[in-house]
Amino acid sequence: MSLILIDTSAWARHKQPQVRQAVAEAIEANAVAMVVPVMLELLRSARGHAELLALAEEYEALHVIPLDPDLGERARAVQAALAKRGYHRGPSPVDLLTAAAAESVGAELWHCDKHFELIAGVTGQPVRRLGR
């Protein structure tokens, strides 16, 4: 199994059996990567300080893809390419950075968000829709 970056949209569907199984298998294979914007989105669901710290520790145990200026430049380039197609208002800044991070390490991007299909239409990067 190659490296996988799971977007918030897929993590949020962890109660769906197929999503839960796929994510568990990827974690067991040590194939899951994390990027700080996704981690911050996920940590918003914590019910308190202790839970937030526990969740952060779990996410930090995954492969962390560092954000660097090149990712911001790539995200802007993809946004510009989407603008040529009239889709630049769809993907959020977090979507664009997440996709750029996955692309930078050759990770497949798991999602449940049509915006990643638009991004992949520009980048050609591997994506997998997970959940409904």
Share of β-strand residues = 5-15%
Instruction: Give me the CATH architecture, please.
Output: 3-Layer(aba) Sandwich
Helix content range of the residues, please? 55-70%
User: Any idea what the shape is?
Assistant: globular
What is the straight-line distance between the termini? 23 Å
Largest sheet: 5 strands, parallel
Quote the CATH topology: Rossmann fold
- SSE run: EHHEHHEHHEHE
Descriptive overview:
There is one protein chain. 58% of the residues lie in helices and 11% in strands. The chain has a five-stranded parallel β-sheet with strand order 3-2-1-4-5. The protein has one domain: 3-Layer(aba) Sandwich (Rossmann fold), CATH 3.40.50.1010. It has helices at 8-11, 17-28, 36-43, 49-60, 69-85, 93-105, 114-123, and strands at 4-6, 32-34, 63-64, 108-111, 127-129. Helix 5 (69-85) packs across helix 6 (93-105), helix 5 (69-85) crosses helix 7 and helix 6 packs across helix 7.
Short description:
The protein is α/β, with parallel strands linked by helices and 132 residues long.
Can you tag this structure with a few keywords?
single chain; about 130 residues; alpha/beta; Rossmann fold; 7 helices; 5 strands; about 10% strand
Write the layout of secondary structure elements.
Layout: E1 4-6, H1 8-11, H2 17-28, E2 32-34, H3 36-43, H4 49-60, E3 63-64, H5 69-85, H6 93-105, E4 108-111, H7 114-123, E5 127-129
Parallel strand pairs: 1-2, 1-4, 2-3, 4-5
Helix pairs in contact: 5-6, 5-7, 6-7
